[in-house]
Specification:
The protein is of the alpha+beta class. It is built from nine helices and eight strands. The protein is elongated.
Length: 270
Amino acid sequence: MKHSPTNTETSGAALAAAEPEAPAQMPATIDPMVSMIERVALDPEADIGKLEKMLDMKERLDDRAREDQARESEREFYRALAAAQSEVPLVVRTRRNTHSGYTYADLADIETQAMPIIRQHGFAVAAWSGAGAPEGHQRVHLRVSHISGHSHEIQDDFPLDGAGLKGGQNKTAIQSKGSTTSYGRRYLLCGYFGIATADDDGSRREASVPDTISAKDADALRDLIARTGTDEARFLKAAKAETIEDIAASDVARLKSLLERKLKEGANNG
C-alpha cells in the first residue's frame, strides 16, 4: 500500500490559522500638546518665540491639572472624614486616675476601638513633639493623611506634665515630655475625628468636651491661682486632681468662677 506524503507546510499553516491571534497592544496615549511641541522643536526653521509660547501654555495646563487633582483629593479627604466620624464608636474608658477617681480613655483604648474604623476609610495618622512652644510647654503636631493624596496638619502647645499633687516634681524631664506628648496626641486625635468616650455603663462624654482640661484653660487657672495667692496643692485637692492637666473639663467653669470671685473680693477689700 502506498502512503501519501505529508505536507508539513500545509499542516503548519492550518495550525497557525486555527490558533487565536495575540491581542494587539494598545498604543500609549500621547499628549497632543507634547507631540506638537516635539514637531516644532525638531523643525530647524521653527519660530523660537512660538516654541516658548507653547512651552508656557503646556506649563499652565500642567499646573491647572495638578490644582484640579489637589482639589479632588481634598474633597475625597473630607468625604472620607465625614464617613469615618459617622462610624467611629464610643470608646470605653478603661483607665482610672487613682488620685481623682475619674476614668479616662488612653491611647491604647483609642487604638483598639477607634483606629480600625479610621484606617478602613483610608486614613493614617502621625504625631510628634516639636520645637517652638513657650517655656514650660510642649508642642505636639498631628498629621492626618489620606490615600487620596491629601493631608492636613494641626498643632497645639500643652503645659509640661511634671508636677505631682503637692506641686513637687514627680517625673524626670524625659518622662514629662513623653507624658505631655502622649496627652497631646490623644487630645488632638479625639478632637479631629470626633471621638467620644463612655464608661462601661454607657455614660457618655463628647469629644467636644475633652476628658481633661485644655492647655488654654490650664494656663488660665494657673494665672488665677497666682493672682489670688491660692495654695496650688490645696486647690488640686479640692479639684480632686493630681495636676492642673488632670482636672476634669466639666469642672473648669466652676473652678474658674471660684477663683475669679476670690480675685474680685480681694480687689474690693484692697
